[in-house]
C-alpha cells in the first residue's frame, strides 16, 4: 500500500475516484492541464457511460485504476468476496474500455491483509492510498498546510469536478509542484 511517493523533485500526483457524476468539462479540463490523473473507477458508475471514460483515457494520458465494482467496504470480508469485487472491475474494464487496470485503490481507503492478497491475485501491482484530498473546491492536507513533493491527492467525479480540479492545480502551482504520472514512480 503506497500512501506517498518518495521523491526530492517537486512532483505531485492527482487521482480521481468513483465516476458517479460525468461532468462534460472533465475531458477538456484534464487535457489542457496535462495533469496525468489516475482514475480509480467503479464499474457500477462506468456502466452505460463507457464513451465518456474512454475519451478521457484516450485523449488525456490518464491511467485507469481499479476501485471495485460496487464500492463496498472490503475490510473483514472473505477473500472470494474481495476478489470478485476487484477482479470483476478489472475484467469489465478490459472488455468495455479496452484497458486492464493494474493499480488498485480500496473504497474509502479501508482494507485488510486479505484485500492486498485479493488485489495481487487479480493482477494489481500496487495499492494506492492518498495524503491530501479536494472537497468542495478546497484542498485538505493530512499533514501541514500545503502540498509536499510526492503527495498523492484524491478528488472525485462530482458535481464540483471543475472547481475541485482547478483548486488542485492552483494549489500545486502555489506550492511549486508539477503534476506528473504516478505510474512513472512505481518502479
Ligand atoms: Zn471511492
State the main characteristics.
187 residues; alpha/beta; TIM Barrel; seven-stranded mixed β-sheet; 6 helices; 19% strand; binds zinc ion
Write the layout of secondary structure elements.
Layout lengths: L10 E8 L7 H8 L4 E4 L1 H4 L3 H11 L2 E4 L12 H18 L6 E2 L8 H9 L4 E2 L4 E4 L2 E4 L10 E5 L4 H14 L3 E2 L8
Parallel strand pairs: 1-2, 1-8, 1-9, 2-3, 4-5, 6-8
Antiparallel strand pairs: 6-7
Helix pairs in contact: 1-3, 1-6, 4-5
What report would you give on this structure?
Helix 1 (26-33) packs parallel to helix 3 (50-60) and helix 1 (26-33) packs parallel to helix 6. The radius of gyration is 15 Å and the shape is globular. The longest helix is centred in the middle third of the chain and has 18 residues, at 79-96. The chain has a single domain (11-185), classed as Glycoside hydrolase/deacetylase (TIM Barrel), CATH 3.20.20.370. It has 187 residues and is α/β, with parallel strands linked by helices. The protein has helices spanning 26-33, 43-46, 50-60, 79-96, 113-121, 161-174, and strands at 11-18, 38-41, 63-66, 103-104, 126-127, 132-135, 138-141, 152-156, 178-179. It is 34% helix and 19% strand. The strands form 2 sheets. Strands 1, 2, 3, 6, 7, 8 and 9 form a 7-stranded mixed beta sheet that branches. Strands 4-5 form a two-stranded parallel ribbon. The two termini are 14 Å apart. Bound molecules: zinc ion.
Q: What would you call the shape? A: globular
* Element-by-element helix/strand order: EHEHHEHEHEEEEHE
The major sheet is characterized as: 7 strands, mixed
By CATH's scheme, which homologous superfamily applies? Glycoside hydrolase/deacetylase
Tell me the distance between the termini: 14 Å
Beta-strand content estimate: 15-25%
Ligand inventory reads: zinc ion
Runs with pLDDT <50, length 5+? Answer: none
Q: Which CATH architecture would you pick? A: Alpha-Beta Barrel
Radius of gyration over all CA atoms, rounded: 15 Å
Question: How would you state the average pLDDT, rounded?
Answer: 97
Organism: Amycolatopsis panacis
Domain NodB homology: 10-187
Protein name: Polysaccharide deacetylase family protein
GO molecular function: hydrolase activity, acting on carbon-nitrogen (but not peptide) bonds
